[in-house]
Amino acid sequence: MKKKTKLLVVDDEDIVRESLDDWLSSVGYDVLTATCGEEALQIIKRKKVKIMIADLIMPGMNGIELMKEARTIVPTMSTVIITAHGTIQTAIAAIREGAYDYIEKPFCPEKVELLVRNLVEHHNLVEENITLRRKIEDRFSFEGIIAKSPKMMKIFELIKTVAPTGATVLITGESGTGKEVIARAIHSQSQRRNKPFIVTSCAALPETLLESELFGYEKGSFTGAVERRKGKFEAADKGTLFLDEIGEIDANTQVHLLRALEAKKITRIGSNEEMEVDVRIIVATNRDLRAMIDQGTFREDLYYRLNVVTISLPPLRNRREDILPMAEHFLKKYAKENNSSVRGFSPEVVQFMLDYHWRGNVRELENMVERGVILAKDKTITLAEFPQELTGPALTEARTLEALERNHILSVLEETGGNIARTAKILGIHRMTLYNKLKKYGINVNTLGA
Ligand SMILES: Nc1ncnc2c1ncn2[C@@H]1O[C@H](COP(=O)(O)OP(=O)(O)OP(=O)(O)O)[C@@H](O)[C@H]1O
Ligand SMILES: [Mg+2]
Hints:
Blueprint: E1 6-10, H1 14-26, E2 30-34, H2 37-47, E3 51-55, H3 63-73, E4 78-84, H4 88-96, E5 101-105, H5 109-128, H6 136-140, E6 141-142, E7 145-146, H7 150-162, E8 169-172, H8 179-188, E9 197-201, H9 207-215, H10 232-235, E10 240-244, H11 251-263, E11 265-267, E12 274-276, E13 280-285, H12 289-295, H13 300-306, E14 309-312, H14 323-337, E15 344-345, H15 347-355, H16 361-375, E16 380-381, H17 388-399, H18 401-415, H19 420-427, H20 431-441
Parallel strand pairs: 1-2, 1-3, 3-4, 4-5, 8-13, 8-14, 9-10, 10-13, 15-16
Antiparallel strand pairs: 6-7, 11-12
Helix pairs in contact: 2-3, 14-16, 18-19, 19-20
This protein binds adenosine-5'-triphosphate and magnesium ion.
């Protein structure tokens, strides 16, 4: 028989602690309990517990503090935080600090059970490191977006908050980070979900064409305008208009766009009649719009109109937790598409994917997995199926001690949100030493993250 998984429940409220104990024991876990953080730490030291459910607010140490302490004893500790209803902010803070998830009080036992089951599986996955499980994506997917990192969880929360409001959203991020999938998610989480979602790339068209594309034109308004045509604004009426690569839009169209946003009215080219439109605007760019404002190539007033809410998508290399669930998702997708019997990755491939720099982000990962599926000679994708120029030097580079040290410092910095004191403490070195290393490796704490 399989050994029961140990869980530690920490809550000062008897009723919560006892009911969790009863329920989780009844479904087959080995449940330990503690009434406060100090007691919990004693148990963790003696019993090798790796999974903990802890109340956020307790006398003495709170749940987040306990989680951090516990991790100094068991670094792979996975924690779920219990919060009172309505304190979503603290819950998000807990996740940012590395909690696996949170449970809102009052909770239903089935939900807790499901969460714990997922957590146990997740935990085994982390422990085994390379054993990818089937269906993992179901648990980490939101509107078809696969993610698991605290950073992306924060973004999911933001999407849920902002989607129903109709506010204009600016999505920034490197190429291939998923800007368009996020835009679609916002649309389908909004009341406009059954209305059109229209995509226009501002980079694909020369300027005069972009303008007529957006606003439409009357017959005869310019050479070639043989028919009257509706623009994207009209097409998106009551729905969402996604303007991709907004940084490429020319000065003239910027003026017209600004006017359309302010007045919620548009004028077709060659017409003097204004038309009311009800369109939600989402824009995306991989350029630095602020820098463009400084250079005088992007209007500041338009920028503020567009930038009501900003979602900054972090590059894949700054959210490595997302790599394996995504790789698994793409593997299944392309195996199915190609009628292939490929089922997994070799350990070297897993390590490579975790270490690689992913300049092309999710798109690059997706392409590589697709290629792997197609080239694989067996049920497993091996390094041989990856472009050699990437796996060769990149791997040796990542294996020098200095590269490892640099990566490790980066990942701890990430965990602490760039906090030098805490990072130094976790690394067990003096702050000055850390500063020197940052300098040596060219790490700029202010530009970490998204
Ligand atoms: N979190 C995710 N889960 C699953 N698939 C994703 C995710 N993020 C991106 N993708 C996939 O990666 C590819 C690139 O995503 P998308 O087109 O949204 O990126 P982008 O930021 O708009 O890129 P670009 O800057 O090049 O326009 C798409 O095929 C998309 O479906
Ligand atoms: Mg795009």
